[in-house]
Amino acid sequence: MTGSGITMPLDRSPGFGVYIHWPFCAAKCPYCDFNSHVRHQPVDQERFAAAFEAELATMRERTGPREVTSIFLGGGTPSLMKPETVARVLDAVAKNWTVPDGIEVTLEANPSSVEAERFRGYRAAGVNRVSLGVQALNDKDLRFLGRLHNVDEALHAIGLAREIFPRLSFDLIYARPGQTPEAWAAELEQAIGHAADHLSLYQLTIEEGTPFHALHAAKKFAIPDNDHAADLYALTQEITTAHGLPAYEISNHARPGAESRHNLTYWRYGEYVGVGPGAHGRFVENGRRTVTIAERMPETWANLVEAKGHGVTGGEILTRSEEADEFLLMGLRLAEGIDLSRYEAFSGRGLSSARLSVLQGEGLVAPIGNARLRATPAGMIVLDAVVADLAR
């Protein structure tokens, strides 16, 4: 599968995405709670490529014919995949569904696993967008975050990606221990100077089950309190907007037209197939939105696929009420907000005018004309509470 550029749809269609999960990493970051695994022996990429092909074929049987609007290879560290493995997976997607020329095909990469030849191989395979896990432009904080690269390697990877791929995004984590607004502002300005068209900017959170959770509980380090974190968030919005990279979602910033098509499918509550260890999918099957959850352990997943054609071990069929709640939770993360008529179609009722009135009075939500509703910047900071109030 090959493609030259990316065609971004102008409408707000939710789309149909395909997510491929490569679960292997060179090292486990202490803040990460994603399904990622370190193997000290070479991964049998031939085996996993064949398993991806088999599970994609099974998913095609369940979804029927569809037109794919985006493909995302996430992880783990997909840039540890051989270009030949990526090509096989992308070819398998195109074999099972219609894949128009120019759709967004994203691969996540870590700067420590970047080689020019490998990047050119991914480009030849059909990848046209790379998302780099930079996380910090400060060597001390990179070490704290457990990253295997330094700032020079990160900047080299960014330059290489800009040279080879039409689209580039990279991630930074802020609200790090001891980080002042002045230090974050300087780092963000530097990042924007290197960014092409998209940045993902996440506040450091302490996730249960991670090494950081235990260290934080033992008071080995402290992160900014809620007020300080809110100030850093506001500063982030101010700086990115001033540079033409406004937030289109709570943590994601892009030049207009350069938004991540695949992530928009999630936030617009579209459909997507999830393939690979620990992958989740959500698609309409027999008229109902179905959730699929795959086995998390990579080798166990591969055994299951080889035995029965897929590694799905969990899932459910959502009720209309559950769909409506998820639609609210995802859609209100977006600056464009939600289509109120679509919420009514899911839930069978409109949002409570009394609750809307209270939330508007508190400056947490705002209408967009008569058809849409969005969370305000103040509402974004307490979005879970806003959604919980609206969904009652």
TrEMBL record:
It comes from the Bacteria. Coiled coil: none annotated. Residues 10-246 form the Radical SAM core domain. Its cofactor is [4Fe-4S] cluster. The keyword Ligase does not apply. InterPro entries: Aldolase_TIM, Coproporphyrinogen-III_oxidase, Elp3/MiaA/NifB-like_rSAM, HemN_C, HemW-like, rSAM, rSAM_sf. It is found in: Cytoplasm. SUPFAM superfamilies: Radical SAM enzymes. Keywords: 4Fe-4S, Chaperone, Cytoplasm, Heme, Iron, Iron-sulfur, Metal-binding, S-adenosyl-L-methionine. Belongs to the anaerobic coproporphyrinogen-III oxidase family. HemW subfamily. Probably acts as a heme chaperone, transferring heme to an unknown acceptor. Binds one molecule of heme per monomer, possibly covalently. Binds 1 [4Fe-4S] cluster. The cluster is coordinated with 3 cysteines and an exchangeable S-adenosyl-L-methionine. This is Heme chaperone HemW. The gene is hemW.
